[in-house]
Design goal:
The protein has twelve helices and twelve strands. It has 333 residues and is of the alpha/beta class. The strands form two sheets. Strands 2-1-3-4-5-11 form a six-stranded parallel beta sheet, with helices on both faces. The longest helix is centred in the N-terminal third of the chain and has 16 residues.
Length: 333
C-alpha cells in the first residue's frame, strides 16, 4: 500500500504543540524558543515530513516555478537555453516547466495558457511566433516575462528581453564571404514568421550592399529550421541557380542540410560553394567539412533569462540584453 504523506498536523500532534508553533518552527519565525524549534525540526525530519508545495504557494502566492516555452525542444540551440535556465533556476530554488510549441502558433498559445493556469512566477518565451499585438495580450498574465529573440517596442515594467544581434551577424558573414571572392551568395532564410529570420535578411541585404553586390529576392529560399528543411531548400536553390558559390543558412541545422544538398548536387564545399551557419551548436564542428558558424552562448542565454526574471521579482527594473555573435571560421567557408 502507498504510504500516507506526513502532514504538519502529524508533526504537531507528535510534538504536543499547536499548528501555529510548528509553522513558526518551520518558517523561522519569532515567538518560539530555540530548544522547542530544534525539537520540532528534528522530529519533522525523523518522521519524514516534507512541506506541501501547493499549500506553500497558496500561502505565499509564489509557486517557486518558472515556465519556459521554446519553438523546438529538439533543436540544440533551444536545448542549451533550457539547460542554462534549469541550472540557474535550481540554484535559486525554483523548478522549470518546459513546453514545446513545435513552431506552431496555436501550440504556443496553448503553452502560455497552461502556464497561466499553473500560476508560475515568471515565463521565458523563446523566439515567439505570435504577432506582436497578440503577444502583448500575455504581458499581464504573468508577474514577469523574459522574451528571447523578440523586440519590445514599448518598455514594460515586467518584461525583459534578450536578443542576439542577428542583423550584424548576417552582415558579418556576408562580408566574410565576399572577401573570400564569393559573388553569387544565396540565403536559406528559415521560417517567414521568425524574427531572427527577418533580422538576418536585413543583415544579408546590408552586407551585399556594403560589398557592392546587388540584392535579388530570387536568391532567397524560405524553409523549416531543420536539417531536412535545409536540404530541400538548398536543392531547390541549386536547381534554380547552379552558379551559387556561397550560402548563408538560417541556422546550423539548415546549414548541414545545405551541405547534404551540395554533396547530392556534386558541389564541392568550399571550393565551389561555401556555407555559413548560425548558432554554432556542437554539430557544427562534427560534420565534414566542419561548419563555419555565427556563435552565441545559448547556455548563458538561459541562465541570464532566469537572472532577469528573479531581478524583476525582487522589484528591480526590467533590463534588455543584446548579444553580439562571433564568426567562427572552419572548413566550410
Amino acid at each position: 500500500m502507498k504510504k500516507r504523506r506526513v502532514t504538519v498536523e502529524d508533526v504537531a500532534q507528535a510534538a504536543g504543540v499547536s499548528l501555529m508553533t510548528v509553522s513558526r518552527a518551520m518558517n523561522g519565525r519569532e515567538g518560539i524558543g530555540e530548544e522547542t524549534r530544534a525539537r520540532i525540526l528534528a522530529l519533522a525530519q525523523e518522521m519524514g515530513y516534507r512541506p506541501s508545495q501547493i499549500a506553500r504557494s497558496l500561502a505565499t502566492r509564489h509557486s517557486q516555478s518558472l515556465g519556459l516555452v521554446v519553438p523546438d525542444v529538439s533543436n540544440p540551440f533551444f536545448a542549451y537555453i533550457a539547460r542554462g535556465a534549469e541550472d540557474a533556476a535550481y540554484e535559486a530554488g525554483y523548478s522549470v516547466f518546459l513546453l514545446n510549441s513545435a513552431e506552431d502558433a496555436a501550440r504556443e498559445r496553448s503553452a502560455l495558457d497552461s502556464l497561466w493556469q499553473k500560476e508560475v512566477d515568471g515565463v521565458i518565451l523563446c523566439s515567439s511566433r505570435l504577432p506582436q499585438d497578440e503577444l502583448r495580450t500575455y504581458f499581464d498574465h504573468f508577474p514577469q516575462m523574459v522574451l528571447v529573440n523578440r523586440d519590445l517596442p514599448d518598455p514594460q515594467a515586467n518584461i525583459a528581453t534578450i536578443n542576439v544581434d542577428d542583423r550584424a551577424g548576417a552582415e558579418l558573414a556576408v562580408c566574410h564571404l565576399t572577401r573570400s571572392g564569393r559573388k553569387h551568395i544565396a540565403f536559406l532564410t528559415g521560417p517567414e514568421s521568425s524574427i531572427s529570420s527577418q533580422r538576418r535578411l536585413e543583415g544579408f541585404r546590408a552586407g551585399l550592399q556594403a560589398c557592392g553586390l546587388a540584392f535579388d529576392p530570387g536568391w532567397l529560399e524560405y524553409c523549416p529550421p531543420t536539417t531536412q528543411g535545409g536540404l530541400e531548400a538548398a536543392l531547390r536553390l541549386l536547381s534554380r541557380h547552379p552558379d551559387v558559390d556561397a550560402i548563408l543558412a538560417f541556422n546550423d541545422l539548415v546549414a548541414v542540410g545545405a551541405l547534404q544538398a551540395c554533396k547530392a548536387s556534386w558541389k564541392v564545399v568550399p571550393a565551389e560553394t561555401a556555407i555559413v551557419g548560425a548558432d554554432d551548436i556542437p554539430l557544427a564542428s562534427l560534420v565534414q567539412p566542419q561548419l563555419t558558424s555565427l556563435r552565441t552562448n545559448q547556455y548563458e542565454i538561459g541562465r541570464s533569462a532566469v537572472t532577469l526574471l528573479l531581478e524583476m521579482a525582487a522589484h528591480a527594473p526590467a533590463r534588455s540584453i543584446t548579444l553580439q555573435p562571433e564568426l567562427v571560421l572552419r572548413e566550410s567557408a
